[in-house]
Amino acid sequence: MGLDDVVDAVERVESLVADGQTGPVQESLSWQQTDADIQLGKACAMLGTCRQLRRGTNNHVSIVELSFNAIERSFQFYLVDQTAASSADFRKHEDVFEDIERRGVFSNTSVPARIDAFRSEHRARIYYDIDRPGRDLAIGMYELAEVVHSYVVGFADAHSRCSCEESADGGI
Known about the structure:
Protein name: DUF8154 domain-containing protein
Radius of gyration: 17 Å
Number of strands: 0
Organism: Halovivax cerinus
Shape: globular
Strand content: under 5%
InterPro entries: DUF8154
Largest sheet: none
Structural class: mainly alpha
Distance between the termini: 34 Å
Number of helices: 7
Pfam families: DUF8154
């Protein structure tokens, strides 16, 4: 592999996006039509991948990153579904957490700020510094993501739109 291969690969993905030829949508995300449901479907898909990784490779870095993403997508789902916001309103990670806190989704109002503070410090350290997440942190992050997702889905009364039950059984 050389520089020409890298340039070719970049041009290929640019072309796919520019031409709108990204291929069939992931089956578990194919039914979503609204901005909110797309965010919910992404959160469910990330949690499903975490479940698969825990059964297989126990890739701690991926589990931690996907857990952070699943939490943020779950919050974004709530905000887009329950307010006049759109996904485009949340270009910065912290905007999602601040809006969730402001809307009182958690009666313990410190929860979103604590999760955001943890995300802010540890996500960056794991990905940009030398921190290496261990098994216990990966399991803890996954469990945090599952419980936050479940809470938000319940708070929005969106159980019928959440695909986690079917993906927990391997039916992604």
